[in-house]
Amino acid sequence: MSDSPQLPFRLPEPTSERVDLLVVAGEHSGDEHAAHAVRGLRAENPESSICALGGPQLEAAGAQLLYDLTASSVVGIVEVLKSYSFFKVLFEEVLDWIEKHRPRAVCFVDYPGLNLRLAKALRERGISIKGGGDVKLLYYISPQIWAWKAKRRFTMARDLDALAVIFPFEVACYADTDLAVEFVGHPFVAPEYQSPVTYDPAGPFLLLPGSRKQAVERIFPVLLSGLSAYGAEDTAVLYPSEAIHEVLEEARPPSYVRLMKTGEPIAARAVLTSSGTMSLHCALAGIPGAIAYRTNALTYLLARLWVKLDYIGIANLLLKEPMYPEYIQGRAKGEALATELRSCAEDQERIAQTGEQQRRLKGLLDQPASGTISKWLARQLT
To answer: Which CATH number is correct for 197-365, 3.40.50.620, 3.30.420.40, 3.40.1160.10, 3.40.50.2000?
Structure first.
């Protein structure tokens, strides 16, 4: 049985007669990035009609939310198979909606398992420009073809009209295709972007177990064991949704651990984090920390066979060194994480090194002179 909520029989009609842009973002991080782009686009083009399959942040940015995909996001092969019937219904419903309402463009945000299949189907149905139709297909935040499934770049070039990437090295990954690829900078280093975390050597410890239910169920108890082994108190845990809050409560954290909804920035002295988007937030804020990650055993085994990377943390990958030491599967144990917390909070050399790595990381991700993701979207819609 899938834990995914049931899809309504029909997605709602758009509130505007003409739809300029449909955004498809299937995860909390994609919802956040897409909301940043939509907010900037609407500032430049207030009359733009934007619909979204995403989450609450896209809705708050001014898009008409057709369905909350972030409530249904899953990760890992085993988890995806459990939700197959739900995603099959969702897939057909989205295709029918696009065919009926013909937005000027569709912007897929990350989430390649769903989004690349949608792009292919839109071409095969003759709806997209590459299929002979009139709907432009855009993609923001490239799949990690530099990690695995590198050949996807050729199907992406076949199906998509343009791609905006957030890491500078990704442009070269598509050099042997005819896909128009542009580096637009990372949203986390944009001047107007407010990070959810900052560094304060006198602040609380911070635990970030992730945004997906299955991952949080495995990772949060490990983080708590590291906290307990170190003897830390005054600790905060950020969560993105009520569904994740329920998972955290079920783990029965100690009374000194505060569960806080992601919102106002929190200042922290050290962090234990999963390998997701929040780990990059922390790295860019210069918070010393470490990564802990556990997943389904079969998913991990298959990932080891398919993914050939030195690190799973994006800051580590960009810097080509372990800014955040990584503890994966069986290595993610309480004593090891307690040692990391001690070093992060007490070792002045470690703290200074984190600050130096933070500065280098910001330089790598700074926005180019050609402009932001919002300006890129505006150009695509002209």
So the answer is: 3.40.50.2000
